[in-house]
Amino acid sequence: MTAATRANPVTRAGDGLALASRLLAIGRVAGRRAEAGGVRFTALLLATLTLALGLGSLVAVHAVYTGKEERRTARTPVASDEALKETSDATAWLVGSDSLDGERRFSVVYLSPLKGDAPLPPGLDHWPAPGEAVLSPALRKAGAGEDIDHRYGPLAGTIGERGLDEPSEWLAYVRPRDGLDAERPHSVVTGFGPAAGRVTSGLEPGTGRLDEKPEWMFQAAVLGMLVLPAVALLVVAARTGAHARDRRTALVAALGGRRRDRALIASGEAGPPALLGTGVGAVAVAAAVLYDVRIPYTDYVLSSTHLRPYGWAAALAPLAALLVVLTAVVLADLAPRRGASGTRPLGASRSTWLPRLAVLCPLMIALAVWGPEFFPPDTPTRTLASWAGIAGTILTLPAAIATVTAKAGNLLARQGRKHDLPGTLIAGRRTSTHPGGTARLVSGVSIALILLMQAIAWQGLFGAQATEARQTLDRIGRSMVTVGARGEVSASAMTAFLTRAEGAEAVLMTLRRDGRDTRMTLDGDCAALTALGLPCPARETRLDALPADPRLRELVRRTPQPDPEVVVRRTDTRTLAERAAPDVPGATLVLVRPDGQSLSVPALKRLSHEVFPRGAAVRAPDEDQLTAGVPNRDQGRWSALFGMIGIAVLATTAGLSAMAEFLRQGRALAPLSVLTGGLRVFRTSAAWSVLAPLALAGSAGTAVATALAAPVSASGESYITGGLILSATGVVLVVSVLLWTWASRVAVRQARKWRPSGD
Fold first, then answer.
1. Spatial CA neighbour of 532 closest among 516, 514, 555
2. What is the DSSP pairing of strand 171-174 with strand 155-158?
3. For residues 146 and 522, what is the distance between their CA atoms, to the nearest angstrom?
4. What is the C-alpha separation between 485 and 499, in angstroms, rounded?
5. For 632, what's the count of Cα atoms within 13 Å in the CB-facing half-sphere?
6. Of the ranges 27-31, 108-112, 398-402, which is most confident?
7. Which of 37, 402, 448, 591 is a Cys-bridge partner for 435, taking CB atoms 3.0 to 4.6 Å apart?
């Protein structure tokens, strides 16, 4: 370097940039020519993409929760008992609820102008006419099969986006035909949102605050099922092909290369796949910010409106993923290697501890599945026994799979030696010699499967009451429903309802307590009483024994006393309507079909809104408990979706690790193509190195995970379906087959390059 060059900082900077550019280029070329270059490229690309999506999901979850809460606050009413005296504008307001068949509940808000320029909630631009309704677009779509457009009266329009907490919300506003007065239980509303005054808790429309899980639970699911598997994949990707890079790093250091030089070479090698993964992740994030995206399997619509205020944070997610990946790669290449300074080869461990752990695996499974039965119900020891068995299974299952694979390797080696199959012999010997590597390979997949099934099973446990409701529906179906009219109902309106309820017979059940005794009176005409297997007496009669009709026994089961006194009274329709019209405590109107067929609940709900002031709650026995369990079912779908993605990432991680290890020894196996006269040895060896361990982990891991979750599922609503089990197994099997095919092709290509050109 000349004195002029040393004195000119611009020249020095130019030389430094040129050197950095050359070092980055060296890294790119080295990455393309490495023996596991394609594997590492794919691993780094997937790691960057998954990490970008995981970080972007964390931002999206926070944005959605924050945006929904802002929308809910903006539409929460401002109400006061003295509102009519204090303002010239007021709206009568009453929040009710309804549900679709097998779905979660949703809010039905009854509102009517009271005074002056009555305020409308956000999302409504005009008052519907008396008897009309305004529905959210998602509710109209979901309830099309039940003719939801006409359930509450003629449709006056749809709720605008500003009045919904998210595009997929179900919500209905109904203006009763006869209006609402200012008396309780109605409230007087003078405005909506903090801008109109102090909002009133308990009057907000929508059920999201009650039904949704806390934000931290969703964030934890994203962290555990997306971000952590991405980090595991990054660790494997950073060390894939490390043997050759360690030699390159030692050579660069021997030639005087600094840590900065080695870091640039490492960045140049990892840069292309990381940038490609960042680009794909940025496209996915941008699409979610610009457009509403429907999430597969959950049928949830991710609102771009909620994401746009956090667009800057979402845009940083792919960039953060890129920086994390490049930093991890550089640190992995610069980290000192254990045993790198020694000259003696490291001894191969026979992993003598694996068979001992494998023996414990069946015992741990038995402890988790049957151990709790030896302890009293609802005791800490019962739960501890289950958790101890699950923890023990997580620790021992990888060892069991590795031991089984090693034993199969011994058998495979004997068969290969017996039938002169060199590929089978070599594959068997390699498999039996390295059981520790197999244990490390399958541990992530098997643990993820167990945790996934446990998470979904516990979601079902929270809905134990929904299980009882499902059993009730299985026994009697909807051939019997209860009708709870809302508002002040006249006898004529009740008579009209009973007359127009085609195919149904009416019974009025009245419960009265006398000290510790309960008296249940059943009023109905002969057709209704006969439909329940009851006598039709001329006078009031006490039953000594109940008929066998399961619907009648279900009514008795719902009483607070196990064996109440049952009294039957024959009553004509007019008298029954007069008794059922008032809102009498302990009285319930019951409709039954004599032929045992299901009643049309949507038709009865529509009829109730035609004749009653605010319709009626029509449901099968315990159906409200089934509806209350739907949020847990939906949460289970999210867990299944995230879990499947996490399992796919972990299976890919394990497969790429096994594939890289297999290809590292591929050149050593290349001469076998000449000795054996073919390339089948590589496919067989790859099958036992990559395919067999992963396939066994997927099938056995899913079976064990399902068995461990069975005691939990038995106590609640089971969301572990056959489709979920097949999907979990199928994801791992598909990944294992794809990676085995890829490993076989790469190994064959390496062998063909080794063979002399004259062959």
1. 555
2. unpaired
3. 31
4. 15
5. 23
6. 108-112
7. 402
